Amino acid sequence: MCDQPKVVNRYNKLLNSQLHQQHTFKKFEEFEKLRQSSNMNEQSIINNLNKIDNSITNSILYYAENTCRKLKAGKVPYSPELSPVGKEINVWNNVLRKEKGCNISSTYIKRIAKKSNISHPMSLTIEDCIRERQSASKRYKKLNGMQSKIESSLLKTLLHSKRKEVMNEFPMQLTVLIGMKNFANHIDE
Questions:
Q1: Does the predicted TM-score (pTM) go above 0.85?
Q2: Residue 94 contacts residue 72 (beta carbons within 8 Å)
């Protein structure tokens, strides 16, 4: 549960508006009238209530949760090309924070700088650190823009290698399956 009143109020407003847009209250009232007017068996009552509950859960609650509070964390998937540049930005951010007087361990900065192949980051001036961070940020944005192309080429490479493995492992079975599929497609035409 959330302990921020502003977020809770926004969630409740969104939830209420979605309930009205989906006519959930009306659906429940209709169900109540139907249940009281006729002798419904227990299974049909359960089925009707489950339908109402599923519509509430699937369309309404998820909508309210997703639009209530937008968290941007984790939106960039991992890639081997993008990760080192992100780590470099992290080094420069921590160096700048240390220079401004924040409580950051120098050993930690040296350790992450070593992993990013940056030598002596603490010896640069603040202006140089800012320039390095800006340069790394530009590279990060450029690589992030090309991320979908990188992902698709990586997936194609993996798919091609897996296809070769399967073909080498089960050549006869795959030939039969492909022949059956082609035969089925020919019949459908």
A1: no
A2: no
